[in-house]
């Protein structure tokens, strides 16, 4: 039976107007009454759940640490987190920190500004001993943590939200092999940064499937551009110059702009098959202009929503780790680009 606002009001002995204000995080209600409403809503099963994980009975302060300036996807993810959190009654506040870069030092500097009332933190971070140390100190202070887009499994995080990156890399290799069926030659990998565990996993998965199913395609070059678009442009220019018969390029993370720019300037035909990640305004254009053949998208909106939900779920849960909910990748071609 569906639980109504009236049923919650009756359960906690308050008016329906008060219950409505509490559930929608509106002003004009005391902290004590807000807690009574949330506890009653939780008890009656009114509040949403993340899978089998109940959400907290009172609004929680959340913070996210993201290297937004690194690429467009990070910026879109931050925008979606803000938008979704603003409509969640159980989010008391949502603060997003734009990290200077992906280094552990940048994360540490940003975490020094962590709010005293914060209950949950989401991070996109490299898998490094100093990163794990920063996360351990937050966990020791009673803060629940989730990792987003790239996991740090040895850290005391409650959940990971994002793609199964190894499977994403394997998918890219399967697509590359089938698009180049019958051809033999060289493939290049452009990695955003192997400091990200997710990028390393994608490359491992890609290499595994090529070796298993398409031995006629060989990865002859793998460059790490450290999230630098200009570096990816220069490296791709050099690749195309030194390997005029290059059959394909797999861009594991950031650096898509540089690869696309080099391909656009290329005059020789045929163009290498180009597979990259994340549907953004730029990659939409690459598909339309036939610069990119496939975009493997991790859906920034869904990743953002699940990040907020899983973080709230980890705060509510008595378990140190809650089940992962991988984001299912979307394969976007020129003919099925979703509406913005």
TrEMBL record:
The keyword DNA-binding applies. The keyword Calcium does not apply. SUPFAM superfamilies: lambda repressor-like DNA-binding domains (SSF47413), Periplasmic binding protein-like I (SSF53822). GO terms for molecular function: DNA binding. It comes from the Bacteria. Residues 3-57 form the HTH lacI-type domain. Transmembrane segments: none annotated. SMART domains: HTH_LACI. Coiled coil: none annotated. Keywords: DNA-binding, Transcription, Transcription regulation. This is LacI family DNA-binding transcriptional regulator. It comes from Mesorhizobium marinum.
């Amino acid at each position: 039976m569906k639980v109504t606002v009236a049923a919650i009001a009756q359960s906690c002995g308050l008016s329906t107007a008060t219950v409505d204000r509490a559930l929608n995080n509106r002003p004009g209600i005391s902290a004590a009454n807000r807690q009574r409403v949330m506890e009653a809503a939780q008890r009656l099963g009114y509040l949403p759940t993340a899978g089998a994980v109940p959400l907290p009975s009172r609004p929680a302060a959340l913070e996210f640490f993201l290297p937004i300036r690194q690429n467009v996807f990070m910026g879109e993810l931050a925008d979606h987190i803000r938008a979704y959190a603003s409509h969640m009654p159980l989010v008391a506040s949502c603060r997003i920190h734009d990290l200077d870069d992906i280094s552990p030092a940048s994360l540490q500097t940003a975490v020094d500004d962590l709010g005293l009332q914060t209950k949950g933190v989401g991070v996109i971070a490299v898998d490094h001993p100093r990163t794990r140390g920063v996360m351990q100190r937050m966990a020791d202070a009673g803060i629940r943590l989730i990792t987003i887009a790239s996991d740090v499994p040895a850290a005391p995080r409650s959940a990971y939200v994002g793609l199964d990156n190894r499977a994403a890399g394997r998918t890219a290799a399967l697509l590359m092999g089938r698009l180049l069926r019958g051809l033999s030659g060289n493939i290049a990998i452009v990695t955003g940064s192997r400091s990200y565990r997710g990028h390393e996993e994608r490359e491992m998965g890609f290499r595994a499937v090529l070796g298993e199913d398409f031995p006629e395609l060989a990865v002859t070059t793998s460059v790490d551009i450290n999230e630098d678009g200009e570096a990816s442009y220069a490296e791709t220019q050099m690749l195309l110059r030194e390997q005029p018969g290059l059959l394909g390029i797999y861009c594991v993370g950031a650096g898509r702009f540089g690869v696309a720019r080099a391909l656009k300037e290329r005059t020789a035909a045929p163009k290498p098959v180009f597979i990259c990640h994340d549907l953004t305004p730029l990659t939409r254009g690459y598909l339309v202009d036939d610069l990119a053949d496939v975009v493997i998208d991790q859906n920034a909106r869904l990743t953002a929503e699940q990040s907020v939900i899983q973080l709230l779920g980890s705060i509510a849960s008595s378990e140190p780790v809650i089940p992962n909910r991988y984001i299912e990748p979307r394969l976007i071609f020129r003919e099925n680009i979703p509406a913005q």
